[in-house]
Amino acid sequence: MHLFVNDLTVIDFSYLDTARGIVGESWIVDVALIGQLNEQNMVLDFGVVKSQIKRIIDDEFDHKLHIPEDSSALIQKDSKDGQLSVTFKMDSLDLIHMSAPDSAYCFVQSENISIEEVLPLIRSTVMRHMPENVKDIEITLRAENITQEYYHYSHGLKKHDGNCQRIVHGHRSKVTVFKNGQADKDWQSYWQKRWQDIYLGSEEDLNQELSTDFCLQNNVLADNYYGFSYTANQGLFELVCPKAISDLIDRDSTVECLAEFMLEVMQQQEPEAEFKVLAYEGVSKGAIAYS
Ligand SMILES: Nc1nc2c(c(=O)[nH]1)N=C([C@H](O)[C@H](O)COP(=O)(O)OP(=O)(O)OP(=O)(O)O)CN2
């Protein structure tokens, strides 16, 4: 017997890629359980599937930075007292450095991060928690089918009391702009290009000492890097990343703030026009700002 639950959850996360740098991604998760009926005449109560399996996936994979552990680009990994730091070298030779509590990472034994590489790890992690009558589990990961402009961004929300405080987690997000009541492809393309594989850092979190020290130690040009740091209730989060893959904004990066930021940028360029922007944060949720 197969039991299925589609759209069980969305994994919103980021991963390191030698060509793209820090990639924000959102994968929709469908599951199917294969097994015999239990004493309730169920393979597994839908309630348990939706809470327990979702929780396992959320705990182990969601809102984390996924790192391809077998990649030669991972040039440093050190752990001390629950704080882990990594340095990753991009094809461009630019470096990405993060230091954060252990829980902010997911290490995958592969040379790169893709659905094909992460899927077996999710499957085996969930399977370990299944009751005996569940003999197998099929998991499908899929990106949302988007037929318009979208971007991949990564960020951290230091004021969030949950996992969104992690300094590098991200989303693959649609963007819709209306100018004077009409969908405006030009502005949508502008945002798609500007925020393709971008780290959105807040000016308030800039830490120049962090980037200067890191750049000195690694013999790279400090002018080319931003350092961001903050302490939230899970601990200390630090990121040094190339300016070339970052966009600095003058506010937090909640989706409400991003929608307002986009509106202000467009309004400055075209003060006479009326704008409405629908900024998504991952799949099926977001914020709308309008003039
Ligand atoms: N009003 C807002 N709420 C939240 C924002 C935001 O910008 N505005 N942002 C976040 C986080 O960035 C987070 O990444 C969003 O995560 P989400 O997937 O919604 O959170 P959960 O994992 O808790 O939800 P699931 O249904 O389990 O996926 C949070 N809130």
From TrEMBL:
Report the EC code(s) recorded for this entry: 4.1.2.50
Q: Which reaction does it catalyse?
A: 7,8-dihydroneopterin 3'-triphosphate + H2O = 6-carboxy-5,6,7,8-tetrahydropterin + triphosphate + acetaldehyde + 2 H(+)
Pathway named in the protein's UniProt entry? Purine metabolism; 7-cyano-7-deazaguanine biosynthesis
Q: Which InterPro entries match?
A: 6-PTP_synth/QueD, 6-PTP_synth/QueD_sf
The family line of this record is: Belongs to the PTPS family. QueD subfamily.
Top-level EC class, please?
Answer: lyase
Q: From which organism does this entry originate?
A: Catenovulum maritimum
- Superkingdom classification of source: Bacteria
Annotated GO molecular function terms are:
6-carboxytetrahydropterin synthase activity
What name is this protein filed under?
6-carboxy-5,6,7,8-tetrahydropterin synthase
Residue intervals passing through the bilayer: none
